[in-house]
Each structure stands twice: as structure tokens, then as C-alpha cells.
Amino acid sequence: MTTADLPSPGQRNTAIRNVWVLAAAQMLLGSQMPINFILGGLAGQILSPVLCFATLPITLIVFGSMASAPVISSVMQKYGRRAGFLIGAAGGATGSCLCALALWVGSFWLLLAGSLLSGLYMSAQGFYRFAATDGVDDAFRPKAISWVMAAGLASAIIGPQLVKLTTDALAPVPFAGAYLAAAGLNVVGAGLFFLLHSPKPPRPTADSPRARGYLELIRTPHIAVAMICGMVAYALMNLVMTSTPLAIVGCGFGTSDAADVVSAHVLAMFAPSFFTGHLINRFGVERIIAVGLVILMGAGIVGLSGVELSDFFIALVLLGIGWNFGYIGATSLLTAHHRPEERGRVQGMNDFFVFGCVGIASLTSGGLMNCSGGNAQTGWQAVNLAMIPMLTLAGASLVWLAIRVKQSRV
Known about the structure:
mainly alpha, globular
């Protein structure tokens, strides 16, 4: 980046203010992510006619995110970030209300419809990290991403505690009150986006730089590896976390225990964000991604070692830390290797593939957990063994990138 490309002091101050607004949104609206992951499988078990499809509500949240990611990215590219974020909040509020209604009337199909619509929120939330990098210089970029992600620390506390407080609020209908609490988070949190300085991007002219095509972008080694590692980190996190409440309850523990483990996991997902950006600047993004993959492998090893409550806690904490290093690292790598005019195209394509892979992982998770053996322990082992091929793919891509970079310097 040349001196002319550096943001002015005023632009930098605006960017920092945007980071704080996005961090607040991550804290408040992000609380519905653990709510959805705690409730999705449990509500699915109540309503699903086939237990193998108990985690299908979570899967549809992710597929809703996948399908809407390119659309929301295009809206942001044309109308600014605020428009896309408001669409996400509206989808989250409406979807949560439908899920509450589904539990009230006993309709599995309505639960699936509400979950699919909730995917609009999850998709929009995925762009908080990208929006944090708008108008910042290269050195501040990893820190901006980390600061926004660190706000998820509060959401890790707010979400599970809301589940505990509101699960039986509409007795005798379990979980309906918690879904309505999630809807309320969207309504309140939407107001934050009016504090976001999000001007519409300038309309392209004949002299504007041309964005590279999708095929050319995906053939760029750094972009390809960033997408692979982002997909693997998020998919593995989803694969294991989706089954965790089912495994914990299936092994004889309570819903409250499941909420505590998920809370610890989400804390571990976001707590490292306070220093992940600094680590990336000091040691390099590829090394931090590699460390994240190793930690994810450690989570799988612990998951295979036993089904005591302490095993679940340790495995899910390691899963959260590994996700943080892998996902923030992949995001930093991606944003460093595309141009501003390619923002909408690259970020939409990335999240389409990321959420697509995550959706497959969540669907696979339910099948492995409920249909791969005779009990919860066998299913939990199958879930953790399924991590191996994806970790191998991500590790191989990093080695390939290192070889390409070394060859280019010769």
C-alpha cells in the first residue's frame, strides 16, 4: 500500500467508530447464535418425526445463510453495509417468531421454515468482520477483525443465560420463550446500524478498475487457501457444536449442563480475539491458521477420549480456540488479497462456500450423532472421527501455498 492509499485521520476515526458499532452488534445480535445452536437440535428432537433429522433446523439456518450470502453481499455493494445488516436483523426476528410458533402448534415444518429465515441473520453477521476492514490500512486490518470478533465474548454469556431464563417462560411449551427472546435481540440490535457510517459505494464508471471474474479470483492461491481454511474451520466447529447438546443430554446430563458447555465454547471462540490480530501481525497469518488447525485436532482427540462432563468442556473450549485462529486467520488472508471493487464478489462467494460447507457439516452431524450407532457415546465418537479428512484438506492447502510462495521468490 502506498502513502496515497493510506486513510486520512478522519477516515481512520470513522473506521474505528464503525468497528465499535459492529462490536456492539456482535455482542447483542450475536447472542442468538448460541441460542439457535442450543435450541435447534433439542427443538428438532421434540418435533421431528425421525430422530435422524433432529439437527435439520440448524442445517437450514446454515443453508439459509449460504443462499442469502451472495444476495446480501450484492445489496451491500450497491446500497451500503447498513441495508444488508437491517435485512439480516429482520430475517432473524421473523424466523425466531416462526420457530416459537412452531413449538406452540407442534409443527416441525414451521420450525424448519423459521430456521431457514433465521439464516438471513447469520449471513449478515458474517459480514460484520468484513465491514470492520472497510477504510483501514493493512496493519490495522487484523486488529479490526479481532476487535469485532472479541465482542462475541459477551454474546457467549448473554445467549446461554437467556436460554436458561426463558426456556420455560411460556410453559408448558418448552423453548418458545427463548426463541421470542432471540427475536427481541434482533429488534433492539437493529437500531445500532443507524449509528454505522456506511455510505453507498460509488457507481462504477468506464474508467473504474475492473473486478476479476469468479474463476480468476478462485484461482488466486491466497484466496483459494483462505476459502478452504475458512470453510474447514467453521464447518468443523459446526459439526461438533451441533451435536454437543444432544451428546451431553444423551449421556445423562441436563439441558442446563449443555447450555454451560456451549457457553464455555462460545467464550473460547471469541476470547482469543483480543490478541489474535497481534499474533497475526507478529507471526504471519499462515502460521496462525496452522496453529488453529492443530488445536482443532486436539479438540477431536479429547472428544474421543471420554464422555464425562469435563471431557465435553475441554473439547469444546479447544474447538472454540481453534475456530478463532483458523477463521480470523482465513478472513485476514482473504481481505488482504482482493481489491475494493472486488469486495462484494469475493466476500459473497467466500461466505456462500463457507456456509454451504457448514450446512453439510450440520446435517452430517445429526446423522452421525443419532444414526451411526446404538447410543449417544457411539454417535459422539463418529462426529469427532469425521474431523480427520477436513483437517487433512486444510493442512494440505497451507503446505501447497507455502510451496507456491517459496517458488515465486526463487
